[in-house]
Amino acid sequence: MKNKFAAILGVAVLSFLSQRAFTQVQIIGNPQQLNPAQSAAMGAQFVAPVAGAVNAYVDRQNQAQAAQIAEQNAERQLQLDAESAAQALAMQQKQAQEETSYPATTIPNAFSQFYQDRVGASITNLPPYSGNTKISTLATTTTNDIKELQRSGYGLIGVSAFQGPPQSQDAVMVQAKKVGADVVLLSSARLESQQISVDRYQYAAGFFRKMKTPVLGIIGLPLPSEIRQQLERNTGVFVGIVINDSPAFNANILEGDAILKMNGEDVMSVADLTKRNLMFAGQKVDVEIWRKGQSKTISVQLNNVDGTSAPITQNSTESAAVESAAKADIEQFEINKAKAENGDAEAQDKLGFCYFNGKGVTRDYAEAAKWFRKAADQENAQAQFRLGFCYKIGQGVPQDSAEAAIWFQKSADQGYAKAQFLLGDCYDGGIGVTKDAVEAYKWYNLASAQGNEGAPTLRNIIAASMTPDQIAEAQKLSREFKPHKESASTNSN
Predict the structure, then answer these.
(1) CA triplet 107, 113, 119: central angle to 5 degrees?
(2) Residue 409 needs a FRET pair 20 to 30 A away by CA distance; which of 251, 357, 386, 418 works?
(3) Calpha distance 218→465 (Å, rounded)
(4) Which CATH code for domain 218-301?
(5) Residues β-bridged to residue 119
(6) How far is the C-alpha of 95 from the C-alpha of 99, rounded, in Å?
(7) How far is C-alpha 149 from the chain's CA centre?
(8) Residues 241-293: pLDDT tens digits?
């Protein structure tokens, strides 16, 4: 009985001390640093004093129990090692993600960094920024969205496209206000890649500004190849967009039409059409178009360069005023005719103008050119310009660009602004003269100085392709210019 009690006591003490030994190991040491053998040896050191006080039978039982506890301790140690290894791996992964991620406070404004300005030669005289920006977020920026903005009178002033970390709409708004965009079309798509552990997106943004009211109101493109084949010509302009409530819109020019001529003269290209719009701004022009295999001529009342337009409709009071003006035109025609036949140069020019525009008389281009020539031969600057214009468009005389340039030169030398503008156009395009950027800039510059509205735009366009030395030379020639007559720039009609 005594031996049995001693055996029980020995087992209890052994169990207690073995557990105490493991607890102390956890407190005073790092369990990741102890292997099973070390744990068993340390347990044996605590058990040895007690093992000597019991009999051999109890000692053998205690030793068996100690071995079992040591085995349990070894399993626990393995579990701790696995947990520590998992924690270390998680820490490494977190560190790697932090090294390749983009903290919100350090992400640059990529919409600004990758912005490409489209304001230049093709977009001039922008209206002031409204101060309000609308951002339209799309799954994809579609062609139809862009077309609708263009039809509403918005012009593309810049784009930004890039791949990168997530960007907020605040970043878009900052760039939009910086460049003065009234509308931004924004699209974004998350990039899927197994090689990238952080979010990356593909962004594309178009920045638009509400433009001034246009002179004609189309966005033109070069003729498509199929239309060139049908027309058997390369020259002309394809109508890609018609701007709402513009002169083209009100005259029923349609998207898909091809513009071939303006006032009887071939339209060569989009740039050429732009020049003609500026040339005839504020006037009624005949535009020859090609539509569905047929040609037709449409009369279009162009806006002024500043966007103002003439009234389209007339009330009864206005109609009475028109009728009264028609009577006055007839009377003035008779007065001019009598003076012109007596050799008065100014009256000859005015009489030619009456015939050219049908004011007080049936329109007759040949008769107009005849009287313009009589006045031009007497050094009347306005008549010289008008005769040159007849040759330019082939009205009343055969079309002859070289002869037109001669008369424009005579008139421009006297300081007549409209002639200076068209002479600049001749040198700009090599029409009737040898192409010369310096001369073109000079004459555009002189016309601009006298208030010609189209000249600054064309001067700036040509300047973009000139060297600084060429621009300096053209400006020098402008300063040195002395007109033959101080009154030559006066327009009496």
Answers:
(1) 150
(2) 357
(3) 25
(4) 2.30.42.10
(5) none
(6) 6
(7) 12
(8) 999 999 999 999 999 999 999 988 889 998 889 888 888 888 889 999 999 88
